[in-house]
Amino acid sequence: MKWASRILQGLLVLDFLFAGATKIFSSTDQIRELFTDKLGTPVALIYTVGVFEALAALVLLAGYRSHKAAVASIAVMLVILIGATVTNLVAGLVGDAMVPFVILIFVAILMYLKRDSLKSFAGANSVSK
């Protein structure tokens, strides 16, 4: 299970890093064509999501060494993916909603595989309060 978790974590790092970099380095016209025209989201929001995706990928990469980093990154990824899925569904783009939904499932699987880290992280926070 440990290796499955590490491989899935690495694949999610690559996916989020690529998705974030694509948004960050795209021109405004490309962002409008891909997102704004279809979803009605502002260009600045797409750039912001790209930054958060790239940061989540880097923090998940640090998650190989730090359980807290992995937990924080998984939380950010869940928010981004739920937002992407819901936004596409509200826009009536069911086919486009499938990609973030499938990745959401993979993040949920990673969360399940790292459940011991999540429990210890939650336990440490409740003790410190």
UniProtKB/TrEMBL annotation:
Pfam families: DoxX_2. InterPro entries: DoxX. It is found in: Membrane. The keyword Ribosomal protein does not apply. It is a multi-pass membrane protein. Keywords: Membrane, Transmembrane, Transmembrane helix. One of its GO terms (cellular component) is membrane. Its main location: membrane. It comes from the Bacteria. The chain crosses the membrane at residues 42-62, 69-91, 97-113. This is DoxX family protein. The lineage of its organism: Bacteria, Bacillati, Bacillota, Bacilli, Bacillales.
